Structure formats: C-alpha cells, structure tokens
Amino acid sequence: MNAPWLAPLALVAGCSTTGGIARDDARAPPGRSVTACHEGFQPSGDDRADVTRLARACGAVARLGPTRTVTQTADTPVTRFTFAASGGDCYRVFAVGGDGVVELDAMLRGPDGRPLARDDDSGGVAVAPLAASLCAPRDDTYAVDVAVTRGSGRFSVELWRQ
Predict the structure, then answer these.
(1) What is the number of helices (H) and of strands (E) in the chain?
(2) Exposure pattern of 125-147 as b/e (b: 16+ CB <10 Å)?
(3) CA dihedral of 83, 88, 113, 91, whole degrees rounded to 10
(4) Mean per-residue pLDDT over the chain, rounded
(5) How far apart are CA 18 and CA 29, in angstroms?
(6) Is residue 91 very low, low, confident or very high in pLDDT (cuts 50, 70, 90)?
(7) What CATH number does residue 126 fall under?
(8) 3-class DSSP state of 58
C-alpha cells in the first residue's frame, strides 16, 4: 500500500519500510512475526491485563505512560490522546475491549492530524499499525484515536515504543 499520507514515516535503524510503513519483525518473540502476533489472541476478560499481555506478545519494549481504561458512551464515540514522539523511535498502539465490545478500532495520526496507520482487523482487539511499528522522523506530537465501532463498553489502550 503506498499512500501520500504515509510520507511522514521514516526509515530508521532497525526498521525497513514497505510502502512507507516501518517494519520491525526482528523484535518479535521467537517463532512469531510482528505481523502475526495478535492472531489467535484470546482476551481473558480482564482488558487491563490483556492489553499488556498482547503488547508483550507482539515484542513491545517499553510502555509509554499508564494503561488508559475508557468506557465508551454515546457522548464519547472516539477517545483521543496525544503523545510526544521522539525522532527515530518506533511506536505501536494496543487496545483490548472488555465485555460488550464486539469491534474495536485504533488509529495513529500524524502531527498534522492525518491518519498514518490504523487497525484493519475485526474483533475486540486492535493493534495499530497492524503489521509494523510507526517510526517518527523527528520529535513531534502525534495522536491516537480508539473507538468501539460495534457493541459498547469498556476498553483498555496502551502506547508502546518498539
């Protein structure tokens, strides 16, 4: 996939690019690729613990900030938070829905607000970018959007540096 909104992604040490998305399969746990780390993941019913377990299964190195737990209501269809990215570092978002969450989506947005990566899998687990880490070309502020698109209820989300 080669889209103009992927231009801000950079090639950094330890990452190669495919269509502008930084790839970092070398950091996956033994026997698993970064792209397949979420396949077959079974939530236990504890979304706060599950999101950390998912991130670790995907080779995440360092959680940035606390686990955010949100209950989606009709008044809050999308939860957004921002983070200060360091140039050359690679990032990934992990989210796991609790009871009642059928479809959970996550998106990373660049400093200009344009979408850079999103979870395009179905289900109550979201990983963005799905097949790689997003590597920031320079220090800047990025945003993460998470939304329950089918069902309702609580979800937990974490941002990790890969």
Answers:
(1) 1, 12
(2) bbbbbbbbbbbbbeeeebbbbbb
(3) -60
(4) 79
(5) 21
(6) very high
(7) 2.60.120.380
(8) coil
The one-character DSSP state at 86 is P
Spell 89-106 as b/e; 16+ CB within 10 A means b: bbbbbbbbbbeebebbbb
Residue 27 has pLDDT above 80, yes or no: no
Angle at 79 between CA 108 and CA 21, to 5 degrees: 10
Say how many domains are in the chain.
Answer: 1
DSSP state of 101: E
Taking the model in full, what pTM does it have? 0.78
Domain region containing 77: 4-161
As to burial, measured by CB atoms within 10 angstroms (0-12 exposed, 13-18 middle, 19+ buried), residue 63 is middle
Contact 154, 96 (CB under 8 A): no
The contacts of residue 162 (CB under 8 Å, 6+ apart) are 24, 27, 59, 60, 61, 90, 91, 92, 133
Cα dihedral 32/34/35/39 (nearest 10): 50
Q: What is the CB neighbour count within 10 angstroms for residue 158? A: 22
Query: Residue 5 above 80 pLDDT?
Result: no
**DSSP label at 25?**
G
